[in-house]
Amino acid sequence: xxxxxxxQSSTTHPAPDALPAAALRRAPIQQRSADRLARILDACAxxxxxxxxxxxxTRAVAQRADVPIGSVYRFFGxxxxxxxxxAHRNLDRYAQRIxxxxxxxPAGDWRGAVDAAFDEYLAMKRTVPxxxxxxxxxxxxxxxxxxxxxxxxxxxxxLLGGHLGRPVDATLRRTLLVGVEAVDAVLQLAFRTxxxxxxxxxxxxxxxxxxxxxxxxx
Length: 218
Known about the structure:
Layout: H1 31-55, H2 58-65, H3 69-75, H4 79-102, H5 110-127, H6 148-164, H7 170-192, H8 199-217
C-alpha cells in the first residue's frame, strides 16, 4: 500500500534533487513527498548553523520543518543519514552551479574552469545554510563519510573533462582527488578563525591548486 503522502496523486514527479538510494530509507515518489523531504533537509541545514552537528536531533528537525517525527524517520534512520543526504544534495547543487558558471568560460580554458569550481565552493561556504559544517561530508565525524572528497573529485573530473574535451581517465581522477584533498585542508585553515575565510589563505589555496593542476591540465 502506498504511504498516504504518496496516495494524494497518481502522477509521479521527480524529486527536486536526486539523492542516492543509500541515503534514504525510502525515496519520494510523488511531489508532496519530495517537497516534504526538501523541507526536512532545509530544516537540518538551518539547525546545523544554530546548534552544530552534535546538537542536531531528528526531533528538532521535525519541529523546525513542521512535519511529524514519523515523516523524518520515513526517510532517515538517524541524524547521520540525514546529514549524509544533505551532503549529497549539496554536491548535486554544487555541480549544477559550476555548470552554470562554466557556461561563461571559454572551452579549453582550464584555469577559468578551475576558478569557477573554486569560487562556487567559496560562495556556497559563505551563503548556503549548514554548508559550513556539512558541505560534502561531516568534518567533525569524517569516519562516517570517508569518501566525501572522492565523490567531489569524481564529479569535478566529469565536469572539467567535458568542458575541456579530454577523457575522464584515471590520471585526471587521481589528480583532482589530490587537488581536492590539498585545497580542502588549506580552506579548513582559512575558515577556522574567519567565518568569511582569510583572504590570504584562500589565495594560497587557489595558487596551490593552479600550480598542481598545471602538470596535468596545462
